[in-house]
Amino acid sequence: ADLSASAAAFEAALERASKREAIAISKEAAADAKEALLAKTTREAREAGEALAARAHAQEMAALRNELETARRDAADLREQLKAEKERSQFEVLTLQRSLLLSDKDRKSDSPGKHEGENTPANVTTGAADAPADAPLASEP
To answer: What is the DSSP string of 67-126?
Structure first.
């Protein structure tokens, strides 16, 4: 009877030890699973964060490209406006120059004592015939 009681006690102790081992193994497995789940969640969160950052970067780059294109169009428009303004200014300068030339020409032709054809090479004299007789010649001191 002692042997059978000892065997029963041993089996009970073995069963308790097995249960403790099973609990320890279960706790260890649960900790490993928790760690794996945390690693997986962390990896997924990091990947999601990287994907969000990549999307944000792509959106930022698209916005910058749009701004650059707008700036290029604005610059082209300004170049066209500047070119048109330059042409307009050149036309105004040419118009003013023409007006001045015509005004000078009109003033010269309307000046008193001048007649058409006067002071042309055929009508120019040396002036000796018109000078008084006692006037010194240009070569005399």
So the answer is: HHHHHHHHHHHHHHHHHHHHHHHHHHHHHHHHHHHHHHHHHHHHSTT--TTTTSTTT---
Q: Which amino acid is at 22?
A: A
At 16-46, the pLDDT tens digits run 888 888 888 888 988 999 999 999 999 999 9
Q: Tens digits of per-residue pLDDT, 57-70?
A: 999 999 999 999 99
Other C-beta atoms closer than 10 Å to the C-beta of 117 total 8
Give CA–CA dist 61/55, Å, rounded.
Answer: 10
Token pair for 29: 């497995």
Alpha-carbon torsion, ordered 63, 69, 75, 78, to 10 deg? -100
Give the Cα separation of 45 and 118 in Å (integer): 102
How confident is the model over 112-127, as pLDDT tens digits? 655 555 554 554 455 4
Q: What is the pTM of this model?
A: 0.43
